[in-house]
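$ run holo --ligand "cobalt (II) ion" --emit tokens
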Amino acid sequence: MAIRNVVQVGDETLRKVSFPVEEFDEKLHTLLDDMKDTVKREEGAGLAAPQVGVLRRAVVVDVEEGFFEFVNPRILSRKGEQRGWEGCLSVRGKRGVVSRPMKVKIAYQDRYGKEQVLQAKGFFARAICHELDHLDGVLYIDKAEFVEAE
Ligand code: CO
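-- output --
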């Protein structure tokens, strides 16, 4: 387990589309363990693999509901809308107001490759949408109504 360096906006890694995870091996588990250490150290709500320089479709989310790992996640459905503040460990010192679905249902694989389905609402849903955007090279600042210094 280790803390990994979080790449910052301007780094082209953040703008690339990540590749599916195909091997549910020790390398993936180490990546997820390190992402957990890193998001807890940085006190973030989530972290996506491209933020630590790995172009694979894996994210972690750390919210009131618990700590979650989503591999190859995809959104099955969205309901409602919420406006609220977001920040990003790759856009330090800033925050912005972003509209997101109020509820999402996602399918994903766990670290062993088992298919799972999960429903989330409120801030949990917001964090999932934010992290999934990272897998397609999208940052919250692309969608924000406005961004300000924190
Ligand atoms: Co982010």
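-- notes --
The domain at 12-149 is CATH 3.90.45.10 (Peptide Deformylase).
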